[in-house]
Amino acid sequence: MPGRRSKSEKSDDGEKQLRRDPYEVLGVSRNSTDQEIKSAYRKMALKFHPDKNANDPKAADMFKEATFSYNILSDPDKRRQYDSSGFEAVESDSQELELDLSSLGAVNTMFAALFSKLGVPIKTTVSATVLEEALNGLVSIRPLALGQFISRRVEKQCAHFYSVTITEEEARAGFVCRVQSSDKSKFKLLYFDQEDNGGLSLALQEDSAKNGKVTSAGMYFLGFPVYRLDQTMNSIAAAKDPDTSFFKKLDGFQPCELTELKAGTHTFAVYGDNFFKSANYTIEVLCAAPFSEEKENLRNVEAQILSKRAEISKFESEYREVLAQFTEMTSRYAHEMQTIDELLKQRNEIHATYTVVPLKRSNSSKGRSKPSSKESKEDGEAREKRSTRERPRKKKWYNLHLRVDKRKAC
């Protein structure tokens, strides 16, 4: 199949770089099952992993290309989008970052830890060294009985392996493997298939999640489909839009690959997924026979969730349509309110020309300028003096005119 062009990658000369078809990269057909795709990716990851090809840039590119292809084909929604519209449909949404911590340097590991603390969803893969040792049968396995719990500490990017043996009756009743850390350590719970050569290949993986005061992870084999809820997709959607977060909340509700296990011996492992320190944990395996009521409740609740996911998908289109109409109506409401206010203002101004009487002024006074306060004061004093002079002076009764003869001595 010819390669498809991706908008997100460009070569140095500015032209779009040709990206190969994910099916071609992994060497699988379009109708391959999820298990076949997973097995093909596992083989390529072990072959081209940077731990084994430290000085080979081509191997590093092959590893990245295989990981990118697996991220598309391992997700049912992404695979369906790619099959219908190619890379453009897959790359239209933000993709979660997947890192193999065993291949990171100290500086990059610090950045990864910082992003994780800030809430950026970073998916990590199991170290290729651990997977290769398991595949070659070079790991030590500790037996774990049903109902028994073991508390240990696992170093970062290392794994502790456990074997669990179940009978036919216990397999029909179902059982649960659960791990928790009271220190809120970050870890992975792994399940391995037994290969013909005696080695172990990774089949299931559950990342730990915060649950109250602990971090925990669990695998359920109950004889009917059991689902897991991946919060990574919802975290990415929430960063874009709260409405999108709501409608995408159940998209990460996907069925587990295995629903039941046969009688015999099965292998689990706890992988230390912390960036800088080891992980404290407690592992326990329980038979589900005493929990028949809980199993039935779980089956009913998950069936309701699936039904609700289908309803929400239909409701989203209705909600978007009504929301668009509401936005249009609120915009029109604001426009109509502004228009009415302006019309009423114009009406009041016109009414004012009829109801308010303007002051009448003589023509002679129109040309005169208003005197200043100082000039007004001087004019007032002058008028007062003139009025004083013009007023007739009255004689007082004691104001007698005496004639004095200056020639006569007193």
TrEMBL record:
An example Gene Ontology CC term for this record: membrane
PROSITE patterns associated with the record: DNAJ_1, DNAJ_2
Cytoplasm is among the record's keywords: no
Compartments, record wording: Membrane
InterPro entries associated with the record: DnaJ_domain, DnaJ_domain_CS, J_dom_sf, Plant_DnaJ_domain
Gene3D superfamilies cross-referenced by the UniProt entry: DnaJ domain
Coarse class of the protein's main subcellular location: membrane
Compositional bias segments (type: Basic and acidic residues): 1-23, 372-390
Entry protein name: Chaperone protein dnaJ 16-like
